[in-house]
């Protein structure tokens, strides 16, 4: 999105670009369960661990860092799951998230932006308390995990695009 403003010093018209923010979310598998965090900051609720990609950081580095900061777990990234880009997926501003699946061991502990971190079996997921589009992401993950979906995402895209 491009907007124009007048420069206060020279009076020339300048273009201002507003771009989406890149983020990562991590589905951390610990045995047969996944990690969710209870957010400290609005929007409040349960979420996948994740956050903003820092300047100069790769998506993979951001995923590992965010997992460590919010859960205390050292993760091993297994694969890149999917990228979700619906403009309204975050009520604060337009974000684009790349979701990773990772494996870890141990008990998560909430830290940084997470008031709490907890393991959930797939049938215990509090879907009605999830923020952002994390309910759709987890539903896509469950379908994929059980072999019910070859292509992703479920509701986020009208035309399903195959993976390479």
From TrEMBL:
Pfam families: NUDIX. PROSITE patterns: NUDIX (PS51462), NUDIX_BOX (PS00893). Keywords: Hydrolase. Residues 19-146 form the Nudix hydrolase domain. Coiled coil: none annotated. GO terms for molecular function: hydrolase activity. PANTHER family: ADP-RIBOSE PYROPHOSPHATASE, DIHYDRONEOPTERIN TRIPHOSPHATE DIPHOSPHATASE. Belongs to the Nudix hydrolase family. This is NUDIX hydrolase.
